Amino acid sequence: MFVQRGSSRSRIALAGALSAGLVFGLSACADGGDSETSTPGTSLAAIDCSPYKAFGDIKGKEVTIYTGIVTPEDTPHKESYKPFEQCTGAVIKYEGDKAFETQVLIRAEAGNPPDLAFVPQPGLLQRLVATGKALPAPAEVAANVDKDFGADWKAYGTVDGKFYAAPLGANVKSLVWYSPKEFADNGYTEPTTLAELKALTDKMVAAGKKPWCAGINSGEATGWPMTDWMEDFMLRLSGPETYDKWVKHEIPFNGPEATAALDAVGAYLKNDAYVNGGLGDVKSIASTTFQDAGLPILEGTCSLHRQASFYAANFTKGTKVAKDGDVYAFYLPGQDATTKPVLGGGEFVVAFTDRPEVKAFQTYLSSSVWANAKAKVSSGWVSANKGLDIANLKNPIDELSAKILQDPKAQFRFDGSDMMPAAVGSNAFWKQSTAWITGQDTKTTLDKIESAWPK
Predict the structure, then answer these.
(1) Phi-psi bin for 213: left (phi > 0), alpha (psi -120 to 50), beta?
(2) Is residue 167 within a helix (H) or strand (E), and if so which, with residue range?
(3) Tens digit of pLDDT for each residue in 297-325?
(4) For the whole model, what pTM was predicted?
(5) Residue 187 counted as domain residue
């Protein structure tokens, strides 16, 4: 059983961005919490109501939602429910709570759960199922997921062989930020393999630059960006199946696969020739906040920054984030161009009641109809739903993320540290990664994390 950590990295990222007065809408960060801005003045067209007639007359019936998505990020969610309410006459009651991840368990165990909960991690879903109060998803929801999501996404909503929770929003962490102008001026092209990424890096070094910039400082959560680096390379070098075994501790944290992954990260982040452009030496990575880490791209003092889609929020007002803009991102490539491992996160919809109106709304949320309605009223939001029309998305990073998620070759894996026991994923992994950046060797680092796994 995975242990849900008490606070989500998405909220850490969002709080940092808001405290800096940033203006971009955020995508969900590390463990899937939705963070986005609404698109004012967008009216949603009527939808086909026939799929909901099978649930009978539900006019006036209420469906309660409980979630960690709070004001102002809740506004586009509520707007996206209007087509369903107009179709059916049902009423959606939305409750956002910053303490959701703790309180939803308390409410379930006390026999007072909501009708539906938006769960930001598979580990929390497993704990909710263990209470005996969560219900398997209706057949209509399972059919939508089979049609519009990959098997990898359905697996994250499945516990002990039963499908409980359809995916909601998603985010992509496997991105590298760069300056389109710098690339155009120097004839650089986006790499399609890890070998090409290294060749690009070496080409930049030969031109007199320290190409990579990085920062892992995040207050009490310092170290979490390093876990993403290692997970991305674990996924690329050893493949999705081995990654899954590592996350579940079916193979040791300090085995040869993990050693190769961390050493591959070290080839970039512990290489004085490669880092820390515009910010200092290798050790400066530990003292640089993750919010500031990619900003030297705009100053021309670094060229590459590996960070998730939410990082768009950290660029100052007036920065054009687009393929022809001041800054953009490319997919962090795999070993070869034929594979597409993707690290990310997302939320899942789990029900605690099976009334007709609840099942009808679950069906709506799992459909491509809802995904497109949500896209039309949001910025900084994306779904892995294959029926999402990318033309409905509101900014270039959302479009890029959706294209990556919809790629038939994509092999999506959830952020590993978010699914590990808290003693590992949000403690030893963070702390020992920080010690590694400041000089600790790979073996000692991995051995200490391995020893933190609950016996």
Answers:
(1) beta
(2) strand 166-172
(3) 999 999 999 999 989 989 988 999 999 99
(4) 0.89
(5) yes
